[in-house]
Design a protein that fits this description.
single chain; 305 residues; alpha+beta; Formiminotransferase-cyclodeaminase, Chain B, domain 1; Alpha-Beta Plaits; 3 domains; 10 helices; 11 strands
Length: 305
Amino acid sequence: MAKLVECIPNFSLSKEKNEAGYNALIEVAKSVPGCILFDAQTDGNHNRSVFTLLGSPEAVEEVAFRLAKKAMELIDMNHHVGEHSRMGATDVIPFVPTMDVTVEECVEMSKRLGKRMWDELKIPSFLYEDSATVPERRNLATCRKGQFEGMPEKLLQPEWAPDFGGRKIHPTAGITAIGARPPLVAFNVNLATSDVQIAKNIAKVIRESSGGFKACKDMGFMLEDRGIAQVSMNMVNYEVTSLPVVYEMIRAMAERYGTHIVGSELVGLAPAKALLDCAEFYLKLENFDYKNQVMEYHLIDMLGE
């Protein structure tokens, strides 16, 4: 069986604000045989793009490096403005074991990439999630705290020396978080209000770090082009806390603040099981067995591959 790794690099650039740069990154993402650009999403409000790569470990690792190099050439973080937290031109590079690949192999990929980015590009990096060298660095938000502007001072603190590189950020490309992690669902809920404080209040209630739902990381943002507020989430384990659970809590709290949900969106790809959980919840399916009752899953099982 072929080994497959998923990689979801996030770049501090959007098609809306830099179409030429975005297209250049797309071309690099397609440049190595054995790696497929599975999906690309971009958002002008966040001024951010998220690519989903799938391929052999060797090909994916090479493409991730080439993308980091191109992003360094294209993006000057001193002039970057966007709603999403960020600390580097290539802000984060997660590796996700997908087929016949272990978490440990993905951890080694993250370490090789971090070393190469420092040796060849002089971009420092933190190792996060399953690659973290200390518990405090497992959480991406903790690594990113301070963002690009506050990172020079942060790196001088004894506990925040980069895992690869010196105690200075790259002058234009900043610093990158690299790590191995399980699949997550990037899930946003949009509210019918221009009051961003409502989204921030809701986000504080539902995020795990504030005592909310386990495996939920989130923030409240303003979507300037639409004039509405958004609760932007990373559901890092959708089987611990499902999408319908957080959606219903946001709906109830929005009503408490005199507003309502106008829509939701996925960023990048999501495991089918995460969406099937929504069908089971809202249709009130009894004794639902998705492996045997969803046609595609049943066919895959019958074919044995």
